[in-house]
Automatic annotation (TrEMBL), chain A:
Keyword Cytoplasm: yes
Family: Belongs to the Mrp/NBP35 ATP-binding proteins family. NUBP1/NBP35 subfamily.
GO (cellular component) term, any one: nucleus
Official protein name in the record: Cytosolic Fe-S cluster assembly factor NUBP1 homolog
Composition bias, Polar residues: 1-10
Subunit structure as annotated in this protein's UniProt entry: Heterotetramer of 2 NUBP1 and 2 NUBP2 chains.
Entries under PROSITE patterns matching the protein: MRP
Role played: Component of the cytosolic iron-sulfur (Fe/S) protein assembly (CIA) machinery. Required for maturation of extramitochondrial Fe-S proteins. The NUBP1-NUBP2 heterotetramer forms a Fe-S scaffold complex, mediating the de novo assembly of an Fe-S cluster and its transfer to target apoproteins. Implicated in the regulation of centrosome duplication. Negatively regulates cilium formation and structure.
Major subcellular site: cytoplasm
Native source species: Henosepilachna vigintioctopunctata
UniProt-annotated stretches for the region Disordered: 1-20
Binding sites annotated in the UniProt record for [4Fe-4S] cluster 2: C243, C246
From TrEMBL, chain B:
Residues passing through the membrane, by range: none
Binding locations of ATP: G14, K15, G16, G17, V18, G19, K20, S21
Subunit structure: Heterotetramer of 2 NUBP1 and 2 NUBP2 chains. Interacts with KIFC1. Interacts with NUBP1.
Taxonomic lineage from the root: Eukaryota, Metazoa, Ecdysozoa, Arthropoda, Hexapoda
Protein name in UniProt: Cytosolic Fe-S cluster assembly factor NUBP2 homolog
BP term (GO), one: iron-sulfur cluster assembly
Organism encoding this protein: Henosepilachna vigintioctopunctata
Keyword Ribonucleoprotein carried by entry: no
One of the record's GO cellular component terms: axoneme
Molecular functions per Gene Ontology: 4 iron, 4 sulfur cluster binding; ATP binding; ATP-dependent FeS chaperone activity; metal ion binding
Names of the cofactor(s): [4Fe-4S] cluster
PROSITE patterns noted in UniProt: MRP
């Protein structure tokens, strides 16, 4: 089996890894076509991708990772809602969304640009524009059918993420929100590596109130601390459900352990607000419609605006 | 590998947070209630939920000569459980691993756990179609796998990812036992009005579209989240969940005959 650090796909068995001390010198290296390069130490330098990403993203003021250890808590929905709300706030702000969920891309649907295609030009991939000041890039645009599955192991996903970070022609951006898959694995490690020199503003963490989600979200916060990612704050999604019939409140995902607020206090991270569970949000996302714009008087819209304000403040503090 | 296991059932979904672990746990508990010897293997390495759902969080896995001794959920030792959660010394600790390490761990779970004789082994998976799934699929080639139960929620954004998972099963030759639609409707406790929070019917229509059996719908029932190790069939016998799981288990048992 391949070693975990820097082993190429076509490496011989027992390859020590290109970044290893014994690269090019181990017995397994005998006969490998790359032995000389490895032995020369040339590849020991940092991944050239890091510099490419830094260069490409230097005109992006705020780079925000949207993370959650748990799946289905609304990372993509909240990413879309927030980016739309930021873009609407001021039409001079340029906002973009990068969807790095390779196996389950949701942004094309949630932002209502499912049938669009990505074009390649001399300066890189052109993102798809949802609005004049809101653009998006996702692997979903590169698939020919919704049924197409991306059955890739880590290294291929990493290559794709590197390309997304270094080859998309965003232009000048005020905010770039990066939507991620659940977990603390390849995608997350690659993002943290490639963005290490690119002045990452921080991570926005999404959770739902119940303990089974918080359990995984605490792991994500632990991950951020391990790899030195600043935490901008936590948003609690699906907090309460308002019955459209009788307006009474129900806790569908009960916060038996105090919900996100308690977790934020325990772990000393900022709490940015909570969003209600509104069936209309789910429907708008399915149809790719702009909830914030269509239902400006909804209590959910108000909560979204509050979260945006807190997030913007949090970003300013970082700068 | 898994020589003394009669049946292997995978629980899959392209989408996260749709209830894979809850369905896996209830499926295992219902099969146990029917008198079978059941194993439950959690291969979600970055977000293991099974120890919490079965109220086994403080338990430890022991190392014996023949391999790891799984954690038993009951005194009679009819339900044995393995999860990376048992190997972490702090419940907040993250497992930050790239693919190859995850692959090695999944392989170890398949080869080094002393399950003993099992009628059913339920495997709970993380979302996606990547390392863990490829590893399980490759290793199960040598073992007879009964098939996969696929869990979805009704909204399109979940269905889309689930269609990818179905493509994965078809491409890799994993038979599909059927599709379950979870979180289908919520009944307000005050006015008993049923609201389809995440819409409705998406599961059934996609099952038809891609020609896989549809097993039924499960409503949002906050009582289910509080069961923590208890079986819905015995604890909430009047609930739709209890009826559904009885039906699903009967169907799974019929498959064998």
């Amino acid at each position: 089996m391949a070693s975990s650090v820097g082993t190429p796909n076509n490496a011989p068995e027992h390859c020590p890894g290109t970044q290893s001390e014994s690269a090019g010198k181990a017995s397994a290296c005998a006969g490998c076509p790359n032995q000389q390069i490895c032995a020369s130490g040339e590849v020991k330098g940092p991944d050239p991708g890091i510099e490419l990403v830094r260069e490409r993203l230097k005109d992006v003021d705020n780079k925000i990772l949207v993370l959650s250890g748990k799946g289905g808590v609304g990372k993509s929905t909240v990413t879309a809602l927030l980016s739309r709300a930021i873009a609407m706030r001021n039409c001079d702000l340029n906002v973009a969304v990068l969807d790095v969920d390779i196996c389950g891309p949701s942004q094309p649907r949630v932002l209502g640009v499912m049938d669009e295609q990505v074009h390649q030009s001399g300066s890189g991939w052109s993102p798809v524009f949802v609005d004049d000041n809101l653009s998006v890039m996702s692997i979903g645009f590169l698939l020919s059918s919704v049924d197409d599955a991306i059955i890739w192991r880590g290294p291929k996903k990493n290559g794709m993420i590197r390309q997304f970070l270094s080859e998309v022609d965003w232009g000048k951006l005020d905010y770039l929100l990066i939507d991620t898959p659940p977990g603390t694995s390849d995608e997350h490690l690659s993002l943290s590596t490639y963005l290490s020199q690119a002045d990452l503003t921080g991570a926005l963490i999404i959770t739902t109130p119940q303990e089974i989600a918080l359990l995984d979200v605490r792991k994500e916060i632990d991950f951020c601390r391990k790899v030195n990612i600043n935490i901008l704050g936590v948003v609690e999604n699906m907090s309460v459900f308002v019955c459209p019939c009788c307006k009474s409140l129900s806790e569908i995902f009960p916060a038996t352990t105090g919900g996100a607020k308690q977790m934020c206090m325990d772990l000393d991270v900022p709490f940015l607000g909570s969003l209600p569970l509104d069936p209309l949000i789910a429907r708008c996302c399915d149809e790719g419609r702009d909830f914030v714009n269509e239902l400006p008087d909804s209590p959910a819209t108000k909560s979204i605006i509050d979260v945006v304000n807190n997030l913007v403040q949090s970003c300013k503090k970082k700068q | 590998m898994l020589d003394n296991v009669k049946h292997v059932i995978l629980v899959l979904s392209g989408k996260g947070g749709v209830g894979k672990s809850t369905v896996s746990a209830q499926l295992a508990l219902t099969l146990k209630e029917k008198g079978f010897k059941v194993g439950l293997l959690d291969i979600d390495l970055c977000g293991p939920s099974i120890p919490y759902l079965l109220n086994l969080e403080k338990q430890d896995v022991h190392q014996a000569e023949g391999g790891w001794i799984p954690v038993y959920a009951d005194k009679e030792q009819k339900l044995s459980v393995m999860s990376i959660g048992f190997l972490l010394n702090n419940r907040n600790a993250s497992v930050v691993w790239r693919g190859p390490k995850k692959t090695a761990m999944v392989k170890q779970f398949l080869t080094d756990v002393c399950w003993g004789d099992l009628d059913y082994l339920i495997i709970d998976t993380p979302p996606g179609t990547s390392d863990e799934h490829i590893t399980i699929m490759e290793n199960l080639k040598t073992v007879k796998c009964d098939g996969a139960v696929i869990v979805t929620t009704p909204q399109q954004v979940a269905i889309e990812d689930v269609r990818k998972e179905i493509t994965f099963c078809k491409k890799t030759g994993i038979p599909i036992i059927g599709l379950i639609e979870n979180m289908s409707g919520f009944v307000c406790a005050t006015c008993t009005e049923c609201t389809n929070i995440f819409s409705k019917g998406g599961g059934e229509s996609v099952a038809k579209l891609v020609a896989v059996p549809f097993l039924g719908t499960l409503p949002i029932d906050p009582r289910i989240g509080k069961l923590l190790g208890k079986c819905c069939v015995t604890e909430l016998p009047d609930s739709i969940w209890a009826k559904m799981f009885s039906t699903i288990v009967t169907e799974i048992m019929a498959k064998e005959a």
